[in-house]
Amino acid sequence: MPLYDFDKIINRNDTNSIKYDFSRERGMPQGLTPLWVADMDFQTPAEVIDRLVETARHGIFGYAEAKESYYKAVQGWFQRRFDFSPQPEWMVKAPGVVYSLAVAIRAFTSPGDAVVVQTPVYYPFFRMIKENDRRVTDSSLIYKDGAYQMDFADLEKRIVQENAKMLLLCSPHNPVGRVWTKEELAELARICLKTRCLVVSDEIHCDFVFGRRTHHVLTTIEPALEEITVVLTAPSKTFNLAGLQCSNAVIPNPELRKRFKDEISRTGVSQLNVMGLVAAQTAYERGEDWLDQLLAYLEESVSTTKQFFRERLPQVRLVEPEGTYLLWLDFSSLNLTDSELNRLVIDRAGLWLDEGVMFGQAGSGFQRVNMACPRSVLFSAWERLEKAING
After folding, report:
1. What is the largest CA-CA distance in the chain?
2. Disulfide: which of 33, 59, 100, 340 matches 336 by Cβ 3.0-4.6 Å?
3. DSSP letters along 18-44, please?
4. 18-44+288-390 adopts what CATH topology?
5. pLDDT tens digits along 11-46
6. Residue 352 CB partners (closer than 8 Å, separation 6+)
7. Residue 367 bridge partners (DSSP)
8. What CATH code is assigned to 49-286?
9. How many CB atoms are closer than 10 A to CB 123?
10. Which residues pair with 199 in a beta bridge?
11. Side-chain half-sphere exposure of 115, counting CA atoms within 13 A
12. How far apart are alpha carbons 67 and 86 in whole angstroms?
């Protein structure tokens, strides 16, 4: 088994990278260390690169479709790692998870319908709801003693009062890093089955779980959930393939699946690009060793980050990351406005992070950090933040 070097710094400048090359276009100063958008600064597994090079050398990039081997690769991955066997006929390929969120909203709700989110949450959730003329209904997570939990009483109340047709679940949760327990998901299942509220579960970060925690694919919690659930997955976060645009919606209910497919057809999408299909299949077939080593590297980054904040930046609270490669930092003890906090992070620390209010008002006073970079880069950022706050 080869050893992968995640400490290697790879120059991403002048590669049309949104993360590195578009600071001016996005209203940010030049020269910031970018730890914002959720793609990694690590190369995808060598096996994936080699397969893509082989495909490129063939030199013909016509229409492509997935064969049986693609579905077996996806199914095998989820069976090995999550004890979940999505049947090939359940899978609907799509360019990405955000695209699928929009498709699901249009396919399963009507203009004016209420769709529930649990803020602070990945901002395209409420952007897709609003841009498709639906109503955002927020059942905010409870933040207490530095940890987050669902407010089940409020969730059920809002679904009933607003006659909500859909819940968008983030599992594992972006940005707060929760990996929902089986008991929590069971209670959510009880509420949604009782109210017949459809669940669209974004599980794109499912492969990033730390310690002895376990990610549970939502439909494995309760068989009846298969009738009201759409599970969204992709290899894009796991293997750093976002630019190749390949994801899978897992929809056991044939009626829901048909409506989802019909909505995709109305958008004009038929086949995905050949590189995305090749990369996804190869990653699921041959990327396991790479991912296991990456998880160990990220866990060490979390451990040393916790020590740094405990010893040198106690003013900033690191919300315990149970999953994802995103860190959620609580700056509330500094008593700054969100604008003042941004100025401290950008102008004084020289960092480009994601401001908390981007994820809803419940994110006020927080910042999100992408830690999927060489540890030397991450700890340089922590030192600059320390100097900005203590200087």
Report:
1. 60
2. 340
3. HHHH-TTTTT--TT-EE--SS--SSPP
4. Aspartate Aminotransferase, domain 1 (3.90.1150)
5. 999 999 999 999 999 999 999 999 999 999 999 999
6. 23, 28, 32, 33, 34, 35, 36, 346
7. 329, 355
8. 3.40.640.10
9. 18
10. 167, 229
11. 28
12. 16
| Cα–Cα distance, 284 to 72 (Å, whole number) | 9
Q: The tokens 């990610």 sit on which residue?
A: 215
Place of tokens 């996804």: 280
Spell out the domain ranges in the chain: 18-44+288-390, 49-286
Stretch (H or E) spanning 79 = helix 68-82
Sign of torsion over alpha carbons 330, 334, 339, 344: negative
- The contacts of residue 12 (CB under 8 Å, 6+ apart) are 19, 20, 21, 41
pLDDT digits (tens, 9 = 90+) for 152-205: 999 999 999 999 999 999 999 999 999 999 999 999 999 999 999 999 999 999
Residues in the chain: 391
- pLDDT beyond 80 at 1: no
* pTM for the structure as a whole: 0.97
Q: Residue 37 burial (CB < 10 Å; 0-12/13-18/19+)?
A: middle
* Amino acid letter, 182: K
What are residue 388's phi and psi, to 5 degrees? -65, -35
**Angle CA 143–147–151, to nearest 5:** 45
* Spatial distance between the Cα atoms of 160 and 158, rounded to a whole number of angstroms: 5
Query: Could you count the other beta carbons within 10 Å of the beta carbon of residue 135?
Result: 15
Q: What is the DSSP letter of 8?
A: -
Q: Can you tell me the mean pLDDT for 236-241? A: 98
Beta-bridge mates of residue 170: 202
